[in-house]
Amino acid sequence: MFAGSRVRAAEIKRTLRRIALESDESDVLLVYYAGQVVEPSWSRGTEFYLVTPDLDESALPERPDAGLRMTFLNRDVLPHFRGTAVAILDCCRADDSATFQGTDLVNAGGRDDPRHGVLVACAPDADAREDATLQHGVFTHHVLEALRDGASVETLSGLDPRHAGADQVSIVPLGNPLDRHAPQLTRLIRRLARNGPMVGHVERVRSALGAGAVAYLGSGEDGYVAVDATDGFDLDAVRHLLQAAWPRGFGHTASEGPRRLWCAPLGPASSTARLLAVVDPPEWLVELGQTGAKVLETIWHTNTADSPQESELHFLSALRSVFGRLPDEMFERALDLYREVLESFRIVFQPVVTIGEAWTQVGVYSYEALARRSLDDQRAPVAMLQLAHTWGDHFVVERDRSILGRALTAYKLAHADSPWSADEPKPVSVNVSVRSLLDDSYVDTLRQLISELELDAGAVTLEISEQDAIEPWAGEQWGEAPHDYFNKRLAAIAQDVGVAFSLDDFGVGHASLARMVDLRLTHIKVDRAILQHELATRELELVVAVARQTMDAPRAVVVEGVDEESLVTLRQIYRSGIRHVQGYITGERGAPELRPLAAEVRKEIAARVRGDDETRPTSIRPALRRSA
């Protein structure tokens, strides 16, 4: 325990170093720091120092080890500590340092070592909060308050693996400040979503809270000014309450008779430039205190959508991102909303086109099933689809199962009305995440759909995005190299269900040649981003060469996103050895039907492949697009 004005950095470092070197596997180390952090200007964001009373910042340029660096913990202590270690830092910038980003500290003992962890008191883009009335950092204040209760101390003392038997250890779940007021929070969010964007922002908040008045305040020369306010808000009448409430910190209430004023910051913790002032707030919001202030700040900055369902889902997802965990009923509400939104999507099919120098060689190779908000909206609902990752595996699998069911059902109906023979169906591909392929419920859904719809499993391809990492999540143990494990999983699914797999978005995210070689794939889709590189043709030739280096049949290569903005022509794509492209080269929008290419379109594509007119854009001319 180092506290007081006589603490020296050298003494702390000697003690921690000795503890690390003398440790054994049964030891537990807790490093708890509450204080200030210094970032020297010369470090350019690479060095942060925990402030000790003897720190001389002017000496650091010449003697950088004169202070207590954050990197000292990661470099000289944790890698050498053989037991379990946790660092808790109640200070600013802790999560901004390269020391604590990513997995450096968490995996200090090795790539998959769960022994070392870190808990910081603020997000990377925020400051650790201090409160003069508490005489501590807010985080440390609440830790001390919990320890003074006694029960927490008894629980902690029972977790020492050297002395406690299994029957002595009690596990007490951490309380969530949102749990007590989950019903009120749910009602607040529903009301905000129903009010919609047509109502003024402050009025939406006032109405949803049921408060007397709400104002958005900014700083002026003479103090606060009302930037926007609801009817009935009188700044002069509550100015003295505002001055009484804010010095105590955010989420506090000042009262005068029956009137109460509650404040929440709408900017950085250290700034009083933007505040949300609530007159006569509901009691549950007052009880939430600082947590309630963070709720309103989060909701204030969250954009609404056209539909109440999506707006409510955006609000819940924003809170999930900020708090990490929400009460169970709010989680279930978000899941129900997500299902509703996914069910409202429509499925369209975009053709993958085989190209050639003769127009008779040009035609539809396969189709990709794509989710759209409506048949008139050709934009992918990327934000809504990616929202699943905010909530974790359960939402990701639910999303992929929903899209799979809708896509295969639509494909069955569209193929029945298409000119393609049922004996030789045009293949269809559907996007899937790595996490869903690792989930048995997704595979069960896939197997059931193919059986019930009487589909040819060999005509179904699952496209695995390169933007998904192939690696175990925290707490998972695969027992072998990630690619080996995943490859075996794909082989088992292929043998069991009969579907094929392809690699999507190659060239972005986690793209690598090793990944392309190792996985069992039937074709590889090159992302349109590669088409914007100056060396695009060489990159395409490399992908083709690697695709052919396989023990099985060579994988087909498909170039995605080919349109008038592509820097690479169809002739260059063809000469690189690629025979399949996808994009707006056909001039056709994604459609619910499986349509063949018009003869004029096929002839135009062949002409571009031959290079008859190098001045032509990559895609089909607008006039021809209309006729097609």
Give descriptors for this structure:
Pept_C14_caspase; EAL_sf; five-stranded antiparallel beta sheet; disordered C terminus; cyclic-guanylate-specific phosphodiesterase activity; globular; 628 residues; eight-stranded mixed barrel; alpha/beta
Structural summary, described in words:
- By secondary structure, this protein is of the alpha/beta class.
- Helices cover 37% and strands 18% of the residues.
- It is built from 22 helices and 21 strands.
- It has an eight-stranded mixed beta barrel with strand order 14-15-16-17-18-19-20-21. The protein has a five-stranded antiparallel β-sheet with strand order 10-9-13-12-11, sandwiched between helices.
- The longest helix has 24 residues.
- The chain is globular, with a radius of gyration of 30 Å.
- It starts with 8 loop residues before the first helix and ends with a helix.
- The C terminus is likely disordered.
